[in-house]
Amino acid sequence: MYSEQSLIDYQRIEKAIAYIQKHLQEQPNLDEIAAHVHLSPYHFQRLFTRWAGISPKKFMQFLTLQYARERLEKNPSLAEISQDAGLSGTGRLHDLFITMEGMTPDEYRRSGVGHTIYYGIHFCPFGQYLLAITENNMICTLQFFKEESMAIYDLQKHWFASSMEHAPEKTGLIASRLFQPDNDSPLSVLVRGTNFQLKVWEALLKIPYGEVVSYQSIAEHVNNPKGLQAVGSAIGKNPVAYLIPCHRVIKKTGQINEYRWGRLRKSAILGWESSSKLESESI
Predict the structure, then answer these.
(1) For the chain, how many structural domains are there in total?
(2) Which of 89, 131, 156, 206 lies deepest, with the highest CB count within 10 Å?
(3) DSSP assignment of 8-71, as one string?
(4) Is 140 a catalytic residue?
(5) Are 241 and 283 in contact (CB under 8 A)?
(6) pTM score
(7) Could you tell me which of 157, 158, 226, 224 has the C-alpha nearest to residue 196?
């Protein structure tokens, strides 16, 4: 189970990633990165390796345009990458088994009254997040945040017909199963959105751990190849971070673009997934 120390560690990691990305062409060395986050090279190396499983130098390769482009070229379509991952021995090794149920706004208005949403604040390798679940333990919100009050406000606004109960001990039972690549117990997600948003979010679940696809690939998969703006909007409104992996969608140029919960966090998650996948494949 992650603790408040995870938040402190991640804040340093995020600061280091920002520095690495800014100076990627110069290939900063360990001493330079450590100095930027006000740690000794020894302590920074230990912190980073504990967090990512690899050294900062190896992690840098996952942040380059060349690496992203190679992954995109390898993954011509979402259907092919999903099939290949299923056939591969390690392709789905880290994927959490997630089932998704969706409801439209009209369906929620008819059925949401009288239900209770339980929520709690928890820690993970990427900082603090708010986790909300239904009475039958379906995850309905997972969002990273800077201000806890705003995250709670967004939760209440989205699930306006339901009552809210702060119950971190209840959500903690679910939180303990998240961000664990070797967890093989199924997780259920309940999301509210338009039919098109639900279709896009279902497509996101097909992107394997450690891989990336372009917005164009998602648009083609949902039979709307010219609807990049609509697809981008739907991805940006994903209410369940990490589990519905909108972070695995990048520009076709290989650039890691904006993310609802911060571009640096998106880079951190992608690098973290790539490094753990690489480590497992080398065993």
Answers:
(1) 2
(2) 131
(3) HHHHHHHHHHHHHHHTGGG---HHHHHHHTT--HHHHHHHHHHHHSS-HHHHHGGGSHHHHHHH
(4) no
(5) no
(6) 0.90
(7) 224
Q: Residue 223: exposed, middle, or buried by beta-carbon count in 10 A (0-12, 13-18, 19+)?
A: exposed
Are residue 143 and residue 212 in the same domain, yes or no?
A: yes
Which residue range forms the structural domain that includes residue 141?
Answer: 66-281
Statement to judge: residues 157 and 261 lie in one domain: yes
Print pLDDT tens along the chain (283 aa).
688 899 999 999 999 999 999 998 888 999 999 999 999 999 999 999 999 989 998 898 898 888 888 888 887 678 777 666 555 544 455 566 888 999 988 888 877 777 899 999 999 999 999 999 999 999 999 999 999 999 999 999 999 999 999 999 999 999 999 987 666 678 999 999 999 999 999 999 999 888 999 999 999 999 999 999 999 999 999 999 999 999 999 999 999 988 999 999 999 999 999 988 776 666 5
Tokens of 65: 């345009």
Paired with 250 in beta bridges are: 214
CATH code of the domain covering residue 34: 1.10.10.60
Q: Which of 219, 240, 246, 268 is catalytic?
A: 246
Q: Nearest 5°: CA angle at 101, between 97 and 106?
A: 165
Looking at the fold, whether 111 and 54 belong to one and the same domain comes out as no
Q: Are residues 140 and 260 in the same domain?
A: yes
